[in-house]
């Protein structure tokens, strides 16, 4: 092979998606278990009849709809092919090779990969003993080279939330020329009123960008659409590094139909939340350590026992997301799916 591929890609581990195993219950990717609503399927079918045409690359109808929904100017919204792509666009828009991105670790698995692909430097800040983001340490990790900080709230994979006072204090200490990205992929599952809405925090702060997605609560993981709310200049920069047409027309139509059906979808989230509390308290009573969670998953910090737990769940036909040596993340599914998982957890030799 004589093609000259970037040498640093040899050191890049590929993104590891949650596994799908035939005949097993998948609780590995923080999706919602229930299928799409009929109204959304109809919108998808209608949009599919025009798929010979390119999509509206500006996603005008979706952006306008989100702007009204969130009460922000449309200039402050940029859409992306899933919020993971927006993470990449944000790093591309802010960082060159001498620049740094700060994020907690462990957090969303894509952050280190994206930073490396863009070619910037990264600083990982360990979580607290309680498996939450250590905002004081993150603030200390910011240097003159820092351009962007990812703050995942609630954090994936631990589920732990940041509360208003702590987050506002952190935002007040971050230099104004450093972009803080509040990644709120799981916002719709948050029930604690002290966990702030990032869009509200971003209103008075030009250096705060908020990421949201249609993949989780809105059930469109397979269609790939997310959005960012930020200062107009940041949103404009995101549009510059956007791969043209990457949010396709079917995804745009499905996102709008999902906003039309929002009440029904958010009611489903409330069911997930009730199940989350049931699963967590059952796990606690079985003797597992489970940090508090405001997301649609629970985190079991099993350390060296993680791999054995993963295999045990697989033997019981439940697929969880294991991070070897660290812990297992388990998505909250339907009551039956959660019961299957709890039954596996119960028989795990402790
Ligand atoms: C914290 C966080 N951010 C972003 C994403 C990306 O979601 P999507 O690209 O499907 O919008 C995920 C997906 O798991 C996530 O957990």
UniProtKB/TrEMBL annotation:
Residues 25-343 form the Aminotransferase class I/classII large domain. The modification N6-(pyridoxal phosphate)lysine is found at residue 216. It comes from the Bacteria. GO terms for molecular function: transaminase activity. It catalyses: an aromatic L-alpha-amino acid + 2-oxoglutarate = an aromatic oxo-acid + L-glutamate. Keywords: Aminotransferase, Pyridoxal phosphate, Transferase. Its EC number is 2.6.1.57. InterPro entries: Aminotrans_II_pyridoxalP_BS (IPR001917), Aminotransferase_I/II_large (IPR004839), ArAT (IPR024892), HisP_aminotrans (IPR005861), HistidinolP_aminotransfase (IPR050106), PyrdxlP-dep_Trfase (IPR015424), PyrdxlP-dep_Trfase_major (IPR015421), PyrdxlP-dep_Trfase_small (IPR015422). Its cofactor is pyridoxal 5'-phosphate. The keyword Transferase applies. It is an enzyme of class 2 (transferase). HAMAP family: HisC_aminotrans_2, Phe_aminotrans_2. Homodimer. Belongs to the class-II pyridoxal-phosphate-dependent aminotransferase family. Aminotransferase that catalyzes the conversion of aromatic amino acids and 2-oxoglutarate into corresponding aromatic oxo acids and L-glutamate. This is Aromatic amino acid aminotransferase. It comes from Streptoalloteichus tenebrarius (strain ATCC 17920 / DSM 40477 / JCM 4838 / CBS 697.72 / NBRC 16177 / NCIMB 11028 / NRRL B-12390 / A12253. 1 / ISP 5477).
């Amino acid at each position: 092979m004589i093609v000259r591929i970037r040498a640093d890609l040899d050191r890049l581990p590929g993104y590891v998606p949650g596994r799908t195993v035939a005949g097993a219950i998948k609780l590995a990717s923080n999706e919602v278990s229930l299928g799409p609503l009929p109204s959304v399927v109809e919108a998808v079918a209608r949009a599919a009849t025009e798929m010979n045409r390119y999509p509206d690359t500006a996603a005008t109808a979706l952006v306008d709809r989100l702007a009204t929904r969130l009460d922000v100017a449309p200039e402050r919204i940029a859409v992306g092919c899933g919020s993971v792509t927006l993470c990449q666009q944000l790093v591309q828009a802010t960082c060159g090779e001498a620049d740094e991105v700060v994020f907690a670790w462990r957090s969303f698995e894509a952050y280190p990969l994206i930073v490396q692909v863009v070619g910037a430097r990264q600083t990982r800040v360990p979580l607290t003993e309680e498996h939450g983001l250590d905002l004081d340490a993150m603030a200390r990790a910011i240097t003159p080279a820092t351009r962007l900080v990812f703050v995942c709230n609630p954090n994936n994979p631990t589920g732990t939330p940041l509360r208003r006072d702590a987050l506002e204090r952190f935002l007040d200490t971050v230099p104004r020329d450093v972009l803080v990205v509040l990644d709120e992929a799981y916002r719709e599952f948050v029930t604690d009123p002290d966990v702030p809405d990032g869009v509200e925090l971003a209103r008075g702060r030009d250096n705060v960008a908020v990421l949201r997605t249609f993949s989780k609560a809105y059930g469109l993981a397979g269609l790939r659409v997310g959005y960012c709310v930020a200062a107009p200049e940041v949103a404009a920069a995101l549009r510059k590094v956007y791969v043209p047409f990457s949010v396709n027309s079917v995804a745009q139509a499905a996102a709008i139909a999902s906003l039309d059906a929002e009440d029904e979808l958010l009611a489903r989230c409330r069911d997930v939340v009730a199940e989350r509390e049931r699963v967590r308290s059952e796990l606690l009573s079985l003797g597992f350590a489970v940090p508090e969670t405001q997301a649609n998953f629970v985190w079991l910090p099993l350390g060296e026992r993680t791999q054995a737990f993963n295999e045990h769940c697989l033997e019981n036909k439940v697929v969880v997301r294991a991070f070897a040596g660290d812990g297992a993340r388990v998505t909250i599914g339907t009551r039956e799916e959660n019961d299957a998982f709890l039954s596996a957890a119960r028989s795990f030799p402790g």
